[in-house]
Structure formats: C-alpha cells, structure tokens
Amino acid sequence: MNDGGNGPLLAQPLRPPSAGRAAALVGLFLLGALVGLAGALVQAGWFPGGLLLALAGATGLFLGGAYATGSRGGAVAPAAGWIVAVVLLTTTRPEGDFLFGAGGGSYLFLLGGMALAVICATVGAGRQPRGGPARLGK
User: Fold this and answer.
1) CB 33 within 8 A of CB 91
2) 31-78: per-residue pLDDT in tens?
3) Cβ contacts of residue 28 below 8 Å, gap of 6+?
C-alpha cells in the first residue's frame, strides 16, 4: 500500500502530532480521567443501572474520541486517562479510606472498563486508505 508514491506507510518516518492534535489528545486524556472519576462514583451509588451508565459513558467517550480525531489515538488518550484515574482511585490512603469497595460491581467496573477501552481502541476509527470505494489495488 503506497501513500502518494512515497513508499510503504510503515517505512515513512514518524512525525510529531500538530499542536491542535496534541491539544485535542491532552483534552481527551483529561476528559477520560473525569469520566473515570464520575463513573467510580455513579457505579456504586445506583448499582445495576449506575454500572451500566458508567460503562456506557466511558464507551461513548472512547469511540467519540476515535471518530472525532479520525484515529485510534483518539480512543487511546481518553482510555489512558480513564485507566490512570480509576487505578489511582483504587489505592488506599494512609487513613485506610478508599473509594472502591471489594464488591462485584467495582470489579465489573474496573475490568469491564478496561476491556471496553481495548475494544474501542482496536475497533475504533483507524486510518483508512485514501481513494474511492473500489477494491484496493485496482
């Protein structure tokens, strides 16, 4: 697969993202952390519905980021923010306080959210070849 006659896509040098794309990815990272915090609070408060609402919100953010930026990086940035926030919320404080209990809902939120992040980053809007809708190589 050639990209405008410059050789294979994988053989081209990596370029840093533009300032606008970098700002969008940082914003998506912070939004992912915020959604992780909100989901951690909601999933325990309204157990079956809150868990589904928290996971649906995270999935919407992951896929929305991928489609908004047109790349998988748009799904990875909020997923990374979500995972960092949720993992930091699982640690105990010196006083013994913690946000997550040892219940099944907390584990479903943690593992389900991580699985959804991987799924959305894998299936999300990846780079598509330019050109018409005809078969590739024609």
Assistant:
1) no
2) 999 999 988 888 877 778 888 999 999 999 999 998 888 888 888 999
3) 61, 65, 69, 74, 77, 78, 81
